[in-house]
């Protein structure tokens, strides 16, 4: 065991505050990491507030972790002290089911072990995340950060990035495809960058006229105001692929109507019942596809980092001092961030 | 114009009764057909009753038509007098959009012209279907019936058959795949035959214990009683593909839960809002696909007839005298038919 510092919530209403806790004693396949940066994902807020009723307190959030290797176990082959590395949303899985064998550990039949609020598969303890000075993670769930990437701006690639990259790749989005990106937050703005890098013609769907300028700045070729029925009607049957990053309930039907025959709408943010109801006819009459996608597997998480280095893609971030995390949460709830807060972990050490 | 005999409903409550009406004067690309058999589809009942609020009376239903060519227009290349032919759910489309060019006329951007209750693209008249002694149809929308097939039992292939065959092929169902077929009516029993012919391991999902014997007789390898929670739980995450033929609202979530990672659930019967609500998490957490499919295009409609001939597949039918059509509808509403009524059109001539 090694003592670690971090920020944790102790209950639904406490907010995040400094904590000291134990990191596990490294196992032979473990990489010990000193954390430099940690992105702040909306999921963190859900866990801190226990919105999904599954939070185990104290919870140390954070699953967009960038740091440097300080030590490696005897079985570790691919990392050495000093490497700049990343840890995303998961830190373990069964490693032997079909999904794991295919490098799709996020779909592990036994369930992936989440980076925080997960149950360690060996000792049953609850995992703690990246709002901390250090973390110990099995080699398989650690990725290399290419030198070319700014490490702070790379942090959100480990969740917001891979979550949008994976479905674009899985469904083979390619040059010339017409892609719609619904929502322009941390996920949406990454989706635009990836779709553009893949050669697609990209339209951002946003509810607000005020975001048009920003959408264009992000690289969108077109913007559709989704609250404007005439604009939505004009967009009917014209898209090959829709990347839906909206994390709250919304009407899918007007977006499905924007898809061509055989078009695909992928949900990456919505985890609740679909309301208003999905109209089955919107799928049947044009052979459309509605699908879901969850982050990405470890090989693809490495791939997206390499893709970002190759295509000079990074997340737009606002640096955050650890002690301001609760204020940041309040701003995020109002959508007041472009587009991701990243905690500078030096500010934890200074606490 | 040529006078035709048939059975039509005159309003929502009249039931079907004999009618004389005009068939169009054949155009150069038209095939004139004397009808021998016409399958009775549940859609016919919806139109007769105006369940969807779009019926134009009088309506002559019927879109599973088998007959013999009596004459061909000067531009007709592929048919000659005496050929045994079929006409399915559509008789025209724009023929120039991407879907039409791909042989997916059912997804025509201007909308396909339905075999009955459709609007003729040339003269604006309302189309009349196959409960009749003759029909005149453009060559492109006529298919050849292989000699090996029993013409009466082939009729339902033109709707119930192609509707289930098309998604199985589109999603590449193959030997060894685990396929679930939900519902065991006209569509479901054809789906089982096709999936078996493609080499899949087939499970029928039915609500009733009483159908187990019949399901096995149809060739199903396994039967799951969908109302039995323990059976549904045992089936979790084990299917590659689900063919959902249920034409009324039902809970999709327990079936989605039966799909493996990357599994696909295709709706072919449900055209209404999905209720109870679709749980988005059921798609996201396993990268599952929910899709729709509508009949099949003309090349594939020919393909399914040839496939049936090759694999010795036909629909299980009960022959029907034209005058008993209203009684047949009542029996269909109670699910009392194995599995498709087919009208022997000689009995119309005898009327």
UniProtKB/TrEMBL annotation, chains A, B:
Keywords: Metal-binding, Oxidoreductase, Zinc. Pfam families: ADH_N, ADH_zinc_N. GO terms for molecular function: alcohol dehydrogenase (NADP+) activity; zinc ion binding. Belongs to the zinc-containing alcohol dehydrogenase family. Residues 9-343 form the Enoyl reductase (ER) domain. Its cofactor is Zn(2+). This is NAD(P)-dependent alcohol dehydrogenase. It comes from Marinobacter nanhaiticus D15-8W. InterPro entries: ADH-like_C, ADH-like_N, ADH_Zn_CS, CAD-like, ER, GroES-like_sf, NAD(P)-bd_dom_sf. The keyword Oxidoreductase applies. Gene3D superfamilies: Medium-chain alcohol dehydrogenases, catalytic domain, NAD(P)-binding Rossmann-like Domain.
